């Protein structure tokens, strides 16, 4: 009986280690339907930069397009002072549809990005595992096609973020700026 118990404890520990790999990905993911403009409605993260910048963060736009070789070009705008700053990233697709990788040479970080769930015309929930020399962090983004989302979707975002081990104070619904489109004119 003791052996069985130890075996179960081992399985639980193994489960905890594999938890990051259990992040779901949208079934039958259709990449072409994800393209277009999104608003970042919610952001959750346990990274240090998020803790420092959390008070200043506002809702911004993200435009997703497909590159010729089937990867995703992601153009995000971030409020910086009274302007929006643009940032371009190339998400490389992996063998698993809905899962992408991205490397940021400037910060020396690698990103494992998963489209967890989406209905393409209303919302998308995206989870990113970020690893760099100093350790790893988790980020969850809630995208919306409009500046408003139902309470149900916001609650799903909070719930999913908690499932990823994030705390209440690491989960943020982003305030609107009225300037979301500035950087994309």
From TrEMBL:
It catalyses: prostaglandin H2 = prostaglandin D2. Belongs to the calycin superfamily. Lipocalin family. One of its GO terms (cellular component) is rough endoplasmic reticulum. It holds the Pfam family Lipocalin. CDD domains: lipocalin_L-PGDS. Residues 35-177 form the Lipocalin/cytosolic fatty-acid binding domain. This is Prostaglandin-H2 D-isomerase. Keywords: Cytoplasm, Disulfide bond, Endoplasmic reticulum, Fatty acid biosynthesis, Fatty acid metabolism, Glycoprotein, Golgi apparatus, Isomerase, Lipid biosynthesis, Lipid metabolism, Mast cell degranulation, Membrane, Nucleus, Prostaglandin biosynthesis, Prostaglandin metabolism, Secreted, Signal, Transport. The lineage of its organism: Eukaryota, Metazoa, Chordata, Craniata, Vertebrata. It comes from the Eukaryota. Its EC number is 5.3.99.2. It is an enzyme of class 5 (isomerase). It is found in: Cytoplasm, Perinuclear region; Golgi apparatus; Nucleus membrane; Rough endoplasmic reticulum. One of its GO terms (molecular function) is prostaglandin-D synthase activity. Residues 1-19 form the signal peptide. Its main location: cytoplasm. InterPro entries: Calycin, Lipocalin, Lipocalin_CS, Lipocln_cytosolic_FA-bd_dom. Monomer. One of its GO terms (biological process) is mast cell degranulation.
